[in-house]
Amino acid sequence: MIKDEIKHLIEARRACVGVIGLGYVGLPLAVEFAAKGFRAVGFEVDAKKADAINRGESYIGDVESEAVGKLVSEERLRATTDFGLLSECDAIIICVPTPLRKTKEPDISYILAASEEIQKRLRRGQLIILESTTYPGTTNEVLLPMLEERGLKLDEDFLLAFSPERVDPGNPQYQTHNIPKVVGGCTDDSTEAAAALYGQIVNDVHAVSSARVAEAAKLLENTFRAVNIGMANEMARLCYALGIDTWEVIRAAATKPFGFMAFYPGPGIGGHCIPLDPHYLSWKARQHGFDSRFIGLAEEVNSRMPEHVVMLVTDGLNDAEKSLKGSRVLLLGVAYKKDINDVRESPALSIIDRLRAKGADVRYHDPFVPEIRFDDAHTESAGEPLSSVPLTNEELRAADCAVIVTDHSGVDYKRVCALSGLIVDTRNALDRDLRRDSCARIIRL
Ligand code: SAJ
Q1: What is the DSSP string of 391-422?
Q2: Is there a single domain that holds both residue 243 and residue 133?
């Protein structure tokens, strides 16, 4: 039974572990296995990344270059663009992106490319695991046929499983070793072998009965967030209409010690998980004639928050007898969430585009993001980059409206309150004292 052969190699830590994709998921994973004594080989299509790793340089915030350098010098870790080396790996873990197409349909092209590379070198005795977030059925319906195409058979010759990634970049409390790992194989042997592998680096492995269950669990986790954030955003628009302070309402509800989990309104949702993952689930549901309305509704509410923010700015300027057209609007923060530099799917991009479409002179300050570029989805801004301006007193005084889009910790909100005439706070960044002592008109989401 190859399950026993693979488990033996794993338990003896003689298994060679290959990781395809050395991004914020793959690199920490490869480093964890290498640090536990396995030989880890990272496969990258980007030679610059592979070279950096082999020089002992990390380009991922959560991975120290010193750790990489030590493991590379001990020949425990190496990176390569030569996918021919996949044949040497006893376990291969796929950690590639799963974006959406412009039609909001799944784009599994990266998974297919990685699977083709594996298929060419697949040999008896290998354990293949997919970690990339994808719709239920991908492992069984897409990967398995590809891997069996050349005559090798599941369970007899190779094992195949899915295990969702749960990396939370920058999280000081949860790293790979203490985030429970869900594992689901296409067969029981696959589940058992994959659980044995992750059991070497993770304290808690949660085995489920199939790859589909594991794929669906991941999508539930992130759809849960998107739907609840959507509820918080709808509550914000409702409270605005009723003249009630949303944040005070949520703070009060959160005193309930059971049966409630606080989510907060914002300018919209960004990142490469929450805005995208639910569409993988709804796409698959539609293939089975099922309309997952919560996902669609959450998307509708969340994607309209930039429009709501622009309305707040317009209302605030109007009350000061100013038109949005010709007004200078200074965005504070453009990253998709606080204290990071990632602007992927950031609502700030849509807010800037909408403000520009109405004739506003838009600037931004973000200590983490020196420059932003717009894709062709942002019609008013396509092609022309925008650079972060220094947060000078002059900049603050000259703005007709300051909009807090990302509540970065390092911004001097006291000075913002002292020098701004109108502030739209979409993140509850200004506490009660700041609001009380400020002469600015402050509109909160
Ligand atoms: N957001 C809100 N209100 C909230 C929470 C988030 O508007 O109450 C916004 C954020 O500002 C951001 C977007 O939603 O624009 C997504 O925020 P997020 O906190 O979900 O952060 P992400 O996108 O980095 O999500 C990742 C996910 N991790 C993985 O998929 C492995 C998610 O499952 C985690 O729960 C999340 O990190 C986390 O908790 O940090």
Answers
A1: --HHHHHH-SEEEE-S--TTS-HHHHHHH-SE
A2: no
